[in-house]
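Morning run. Coffee first, then this:
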Amino acid sequence: MVNRVNFSTIINKYNNIGKGNVRLTQSTLFLTRPISATSTVYQFDVLESQTQTLQADEIRLNLNDEFIISELGFYLQASILDSLGVDTGAKIILPYAPFEQNSVQASRITNFWNGSFQIAVNNIVYLDKYDVKKSNFVPRTQFADFNALTGTPSTIPSVNFDTDGMSSTEPMLTLSGAKKNNLTWTLPTAISPATFRVVDNQGVSYTVSVDRVVCLARGLNAQNGASFQS
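And here it is:
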């Protein structure tokens, strides 16, 4: 979380370099990439202008703005399929591999949290060898199948995404819409998509299809803060 001291320091720095028109607001970047069974390196596109890969649920950086990161988190994203295998359009993010559902499928994705992360801006590395394991959070309440004999309902992970799997970054890093931002996540071995069958408390089955990786950044958005802005 960005505190008042950081807010004041950052806005003063923009004022000192003649950017008095910069407006700071609390904001988020939600960046995703599809899981590839043949790749150990993922590069996240940061800018809204990179429309070829832009997903409907992504939140990216405007060309005119800068983003000061205060917290980072890394998650797996899953699509929800109905009992017939049809995509419902709903998505969830997971901070752990649900071995309690299917250990074979979970083993396909668990190396996600053994990776490392790097941020470079204009080819200058500002964050290196940042361990993604900081975001590996296994909640006390996990997925559980409906038991038809006892009538025991299923549960879903009880996760607070304000805190669970998020870690503060100090010093805070700045991404810019006017610069080349390289956000690179490297794995020891490749992961592959995984599917898990879950049954709700009415006994209706559905499928959790883990198919994307997520970089979630929270911090301050500096409107009109990009270097080509006056």
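The chain has two helices and ten strands. Good start to the day.
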